[in-house]
Amino acid sequence: MMLNDQWTIMNNSSSELDSKRPSKHKRCCNFLLWSLVVLVLIASVVTATVTILYLNQYPLPFISRGGLSSPVIATNPKESGALVTVSRVADGEPISIFLDPNCPDFSEHFLRWEALQSSLLRTLTNHNADDWQERGLVQKLSEELKVLSGHAHNLRLEYDSLKRGHGVLDQRLDGLQSEQSRIVQVLSDSHSGVLKLAAGLSDSLISLQRETESLQRLKSELSRDNTHAAVRPRDCSDVLAAGVSQDGVYSVFPPHDPDGFMVYCDMTTDGGGWTVIQRREDGSVNFFKGWDAYRDGFGTTTGEHWLGLHRIYSLTRLGGVELRIDMADFDNATAFAHYSDFSVGRDSVNPEEDGYPLSVDGYSGTAGDALLKHSGMRFTTKDRDQDQSENNCAAYYQGAWWYRNCHTSNLNGQYLRGGHASYADGVEWSSWTGWQYSLRFTEMKIRPRPKPEPQQS
Ligand SMILES: [Ca+2]
Fold first, then answer.
1. C-alpha angle 105/109/115, rounded to 5°?
2. String of DSSP letters for 59-76
3. How many whole angstroms from 66 Cα to the centroid of ligand 1?
4. CA-based torsion, 249, 255, 260, 261: positive or negative
5. Ligand 1 centre from 379 Cα, in Å?
6. Distance 451 CA to ligand 1 centre (A)
7. H/E element holding 375?
8. From ligand 1's centre to the CA of 437, what distance in Å?
9. 276: CA distance to ligand 1 center in Å?
10. CATH 3.40.570.10 is the classification of domain 236-448
11. pLDDT tens per residue, the chain (457 residues)?
12. CB-CB contact of 287 with 381 (8 Å)
């Protein structure tokens, strides 16, 4: 107000000077104008200085601050309980702020906080205005809450059900675990069993391999034996087949008798190949012998001899053997008897214990049959009575034969040189010379029965 007044005075003075000196007043006007400019500048500087001091709240003696609405800060007001209360004179509403006394001075932020409070108040007002909408919302929320409660109940029920199911699942899981343990145990047992079985199989394979090797060795040995048999005749027919056609003594090796023995071979009679098993020709050998002699054989192969029951068994045990008996009397008459089948002890497990029974069949010849009645009889010697007589036929008729009760032939009897007074105790073939003629020559011989030739159409 005071500055405006001065400014008004200046303007008034200038107007008066202009009116008093209208002619020579131009220099004076310039002076006044410059003075006025200086005054305005001074006034502007003073005004600016005062304003700055005022704004910096410097206490000015000529300005009272009671009219300005600056905030009033009260510390620790008792009635509000706040540490600091900020109040604006214009509003009159205090803003209570709880401040830590040790906090730094936040007075610069109070204006910002006031603005925040105003914003909050507006928000509260808007909130009251929207209250009716909220109530509707609350009802809606309540209804939805009921629905949610129903869902929650259902979920609860499902949870309980699931919990029970979980318990059942736990039980089944326990069962499965125990089953798994059992299966693992069974697999372990099976594994050990398989291992044992494999070990057993391995042992069996090793054993089998050894057996195979043994069999191969045996096979090669048998092969060697067969090769050897080609050069080792089983009997005189093999000797003849090997190209030897001269009568004489040869070694033969019947099956199952690898040691072999010496025999006389008749290579001339009826095609040859005959193995001689008995010969009487001069009475040089005593034929009234016991069991062991007749079992093992005796005499001279080239002369009178008995080949032996066991050797005859060896030569005939496989069957298919024929027998020929050539005979001669002291008048140089000859005859023969032929039997298409002949064997000794063929069906016996133990031929000696069984008595080397005779099997003979199929007579043909010129001497008549004097042997078929002896078929099936066991061999009797003077020391082993196996005949069907109440006496010992061998002892009674001075020989050794397959006696029944007692005989129709007695080729191992006494060499009585033709007719004799005694009864049937010589070298008899009753069908040719009766029971009181002892033959000069007898020769029993065997060979494999020739296979029938294929018939020509
Ligand atoms: Ca008897």
1. 150
2. --TT---TTS--EEEEES
3. 180
4. negative
5. 11
6. 39
7. none
8. 24
9. 29
10. no
11. 444 444 333 344 444 444 444 556 678 788 889 989 999 999 999 888 888 887 876 666 665 554 444 555 555 555 555 555 555 555 556 555 555 555 455 555 557 766 776 777 777 667 666 666 777 887 888 888 888 888 888 888 888 888 888 888 888 888 888 888 888 888 888 888 888 988 888 888 988 998 888 888 888 777 665 555 557 999 999 999 999 999 999 999 999 888 999 999 999 999 999 999 999 999 999 999 999 999 999 999 999 999 999 999 999 999 999 999 999 999 999 999 999 999 999 999 999 999 999 999 999 999 999 999 999 999 999 999 999 999 999 999 999 999 999 999 999 999 999 999 999 999 999 999 999 999 999 999 999 998 877 666 5
12. no
Contacts of 260 (CB under 8 A, 6+ apart): 232, 251, 252, 253, 254
Torsion angle of the four alpha carbons 402, 406, 409, 411, in this order, in degrees rounded to the nearest 10: 60
Q: Can you give the three-state secondary structure of 121-148, one letter per residue?
A: HHHHHHHHHCHHHHHHHHHHHHHHHHHH
The residues, ordered by sequence, that sit 6+ positions from 283 with a Cβ below 8 Å of its Cβ are: 304, 415, 417
CA distance 154 to 254: 106
Which residues does 39 contact at the CB level (< 8 Å), separation at least 6?
6, 10
> How close is the Cα of 377 to the center of ligand 1, in Å?
12
What's the 57 CA to ligand 1 centre distance in angstroms?
176
Q: What pTM value is reported for the model?
A: 0.52
CA–centroid distance, 382 to ligand 1, in Å, is 10
**How does strand 248-252 pair with strand 437-438?**
unpaired
Cα-to-centroid distance, 31 and ligand 1 (Å): 206
Report the separation in Å between the CA atom of 395 and the middle of ligand 1, taken as the mean of its atom positions.
Answer: 9
Structure-block tokens of residue 286: 């005593």
User: d(Cα 213, Cα 219) in Å, to the nearest integer?
Assistant: 10
